[in-house]
Amino acid sequence: MKKVSVGEDRNTRGAIKIAFNPMFTYYPEQNSISSSLLSSIVSGFTTRDSGDMRKIQTVKDFFKENEITPRKIVLLEQIHSINVSVPDTLHLGDVEILEESDGVITKEKGVAISVHTADCVPILFYDPVEYIIGASHQGWRGSVKN
């Protein structure tokens, strides 16, 4: 078993790398944690300190503050189901809310996908061959349905 190491990383302006060789970087100014494993994909976790990320304007503000400019933002209306959606890339507008869905997959570049969890588990997917990403809100209610 490896120890978790925490240390300053001078290359990320005071961010702290929390690591299993390092796996995550914590950015205290943004209250976010980002995966260090996939440098080509912007990924991250936030806390309640960042605001209610179920609200569209909060998500937009968070991206703007962190200089992240997705072509489209995809949010889920999570209902503890086994439903997984694929966002409509032809949908007009910069935000799409996928109704009655607890997972999302896409191969479109520039799409920000999001799941919210409390006592459930966020599961992130990445296929390096087909360049497909996904996120799932995995709770016990959805698990027992499958």
From TrEMBL:
Pfam families (UniProt xref): Cu-oxidase_4
Superkingdom per UniProt: Bacteria
The keyword Hydrolase is assigned to this record: yes
InterPro entries, per database record: Cu_polyphenol_OxRdtase, Cu_polyphenol_OxRdtase_sf, Cytotoxic_necrot_fac-like_cat
Family as reported in the entry's similarity comment: Belongs to the purine nucleoside phosphorylase YfiH/LACC1 family.
Keyword annotations from UniProtKB, A to Z: Hydrolase, Metal-binding, Transferase, Zinc
Molecular function, one GO term: S-methyl-5-thioadenosine phosphorylase activity
Protein name stated in the entry: Laccase domain-containing protein
Keyword Zinc attributed: yes
Catalytic reaction(s) noted: inosine + phosphate = alpha-D-ribose 1-phosphate + hypoxanthine; S-methyl-5'-thioadenosine + phosphate = 5-(methylsulfanyl)-alpha-D-ribose 1-phosphate + adenine; adenosine + H2O + H(+) = inosine + NH4(+); adenosine + phosphate = alpha-D-ribose 1-phosphate + adenine
